[in-house]
UniProtKB/TrEMBL annotation, chains A, B:
Database matches in InterPro entries: HTH_LacI, LacI/GalR-like_sensor, Lambda_DNA-bd_dom_sf, Peripla_BP_I
GO-annotated molecular function: DNA-binding transcription factor activity; transcription cis-regulatory region binding
Positions of the HTH lacI-type domain: 2-56
Keyword DNA-binding: yes
Protein name per the record: LacI family DNA-binding transcriptional regulator
Taxonomic superkingdom: Bacteria
Xref: CDD domains: HTH_LacI (cd01392)
Keywords, alphabetical: DNA-binding, Transcription, Transcription regulation
Stored PROSITE patterns: HTH_LACI_1, HTH_LACI_2
Statement: the UniProt record of this protein carries the keyword Transcription: yes
Phylogenetic classification of the source organism: Bacteria, Bacillati, Actinomycetota, Actinomycetes, Micrococcales
Gene source species: Microbacterium stercoris
Amino acid sequence: MVTMRDVAQRAGVSVATVSFVVNGSKPVRDETRERVEEAMLALGFHRNPLGAALARRGHTRIIAMLYPALERPLTPTAVAFFTGASRRAREQGYDLVMWPIGNDAEQVAVLARTGLVDGVLLMEVQLEDPRVDALRTAGVPFAMIGRTAEPEGIGYVDIDFAATTRDAVARLHALGHTRIAFVAGSEPGYQHAARTRAESAYRTAVTEIGGPATVIRVDESPAAGRALGERILTDHPGTTGVVILNEHAAAGLLIGLAHAGTSVPRDLSVVSMSTSAYMAEMAEPRLTYLRAPGAELGEWGVDALLERILSPDHAPRQRLLACEYVAGDTLAPAPAGAGAWAGA
Amino acid sequence: MVTMRDVAQRAGVSVATVSFVVNGSKPVRDETRERVEEAMLALGFHRNPLGAALARRGHTRIIAMLYPALERPLTPTAVAFFTGASRRAREQGYDLVMWPIGNDAEQVAVLARTGLVDGVLLMEVQLEDPRVDALRTAGVPFAMIGRTAEPEGIGYVDIDFAATTRDAVARLHALGHTRIAFVAGSEPGYQHAARTRAESAYRTAVTEIGGPATVIRVDESPAAGRALGERILTDHPGTTGVVILNEHAAAGLLIGLAHAGTSVPRDLSVVSMSTSAYMAEMAEPRLTYLRAPGAELGEWGVDALLERILSPDHAPRQRLLACEYVAGDTLAPAPAGAGAWAGA
DNA sequence: CTGAAAGCGCTTACAG
DNA sequence: CTGAAAGCGCTTACAG
C-alpha cells in the first residue's frame, strides 16, 4: 500500500504538505503542489479513508440507507429511492450503502456506535419509530424518507399522502363514484406512517362526498391481492371504486376481480396510489395510478441528511411531494344507478 | 466517546489488557477479566472499529455486495440473495452492505482501495467480467453469485442453468411439445453469463428432441413482455411452448398473449426459469416455474467469500444449485396435431 | 507557504 | 498473565 509517507519522500516534502494537497485544506505553492501530484500519480497513491476517518474523529463520508422490510421484494419505487439517493450522494462526494437491518432500536444503535457512517437515511418510517430515538441518543445525524407522527426538528422528505389520497378520491367522485373502498397493506404491529395518513385522509374525503368509509387490509403480496379481488364485491357489495395503497397486491387484485367475473373498469374502478410504471404495466388492465416520485425522494432525502451533517444548527429541511396522476385503463365512470348509497 | 483508555483506567489495567479481553486474543486472569468487563459495562464501552481496522491493517469485518443493475427493480430472487447473504454474514460476525456501483472496473477499484471492506460478493456476473480483474489486481478477496466463462480459482455459487434449462425443455417435451421457443432478457453490450449458458443448453436440448431453435430477446420489463406476447405467435407460428428466463417480462408476456387471443396453456405452454413464487402469482394464469434458490445462493455465496478471506490458500468453494420445479397453471399437453414440425 | 509533532482508538510483538 | 511502547495512515493546531 502506498502511503502519504511514500509520496512525501518522493516529492521531498512532509506528509503534512501531502495532506494539504490531497484535501485542499491549506494553500500550497504551485511548484510544490505539482511535485506532490506528480509523486502521487507515479506511485498510484490513494488516501486510506480509515486513517483519515480516525484522524478527523470519525468522518467516513459514507451514509447508510436503512431498509427494514427486506422480507418482501423491493418495489420499483423503493429501488428508485435508492438509485436517486445514491446518485445524489456521489455527486456530493459521499458513498451511500444499503444496510439491511431490522426495525429495532438495538441494531440501529450498534450501527451508530461503530462510527462507520456519517449519517443515516431512514426508510419505511413508522408513526412512532424506535429507530429515531436510537439515533438521537447515539448522536448520529439522520433524515427520513417518510415521517413520524411528530417530525419536528427532523429533516425529512415524504410523499404528501393526504393530498394524494384526496386526489384519488376526487377523481373517482368526479366520475360519479361515491362508494369507494380503501385497500392498504397489513403488517401486524407495524404502524406504517404513510398508510395511517392516507387512511385518515381517505375517511375524511369519502365522508365529504357522502359515501361510506370502507377500509380493507391485505398482506403485501400478489396472492393476497388475488384473494381479495375474488371476494371484495361479495364482502362489500355496491362498491364501485377502489383506492389501493399496496403495490404488491394491486396486480393480484385485478386478477382476482377477473376470476370473480368483475369487469374493470366497467363494474369497478381502481386507482393505485404511490405506484410505478413498472407495476402499472404488470397489471391487466394497466393501472390508473398516482406515480411515486421515487428518485426525487431519494435525492432530496440525501440533501436533507447532508444538511444535518454539515449544518446541524440550521433548521432541518422538510419537504412534501405529491404524486402525479397517470392515466391507465382502470378508471371509468361509475356504473349507471350505482351512485346512490342505499345505506350500510 | 468511551475509549479503551477510559476502561483501562477504571479497571486499573493497561489498554493492552482491555484489548485482550475485548478480542479474546490472549488469556486473561478471571479476576482481571471481570474487572475489565465491569468497567466496560459501567462505561458503556464499544470498540471503535475504525481504530481496530487501522491497527490490524484494514480488517473491518464488513463485506459488500455489488449489485450493478439498479435501473430495474430488484427481483424477489435478488432480494432473497441479499437477505440470505446478510443473515449468514451476521451469523459469522460480519456486516453485509449493498453497494450500488456500476459495472465498470474503475468504480470497483476505487471501492477496493478504500480498504473499507474485507471482501466483495459479485452479483449479475458476466461471462467476461471486468470487475473480476479489478478485484484481482486490487488484491481484494471476492466470490461470485454466478460465474464467469472461466471461473477457475474463484469461489462461487451459481444456479445450474444448463440443468435447469434441460429440465424445462424435457418437461415440455414429455407433454408432446417440440416447437419450443426460448425467451431471455436483452441488454446491449452485456454478456450475462446465466443467459448465455441457458441459451446454449436450450439449443442443445431442443435439437435433441428434433425441434427448431428459436431464441427471442426482449427487454426486462413488463411492457416488453406485453409487446412480445402480442406478436410471438405471429412471428413464430407453430410454437407451442415457451421457456422464459426473464422474470420482469413473464407476467407481461401472458397479458400480451391474452390480448392476441392465445389461450395459455391450451394453445401455448409457458415455463419460467429461475423465478419466485411472488412473480408466479403476479401472472395470470399462475406461472409454472423453476424456483430460484435465492436465499441459499446468498448464504453459500457468503460462505465462499469468507473462505477466501479466512483461508486464502484453500481451494475455492464452487457450487451449483438446480432450480426446483413448481407446478402452476401454464403447462399443458401440446395442442393436438401440433407435434410435427413442418420445417422452418 | 511548509514542517515537526501530537493525536485519533486500537492491536500486537516484545519483555518481564 | 500483564504492561510499555511502537505503529496502523492520516489530520491539524502550532510554530516558524
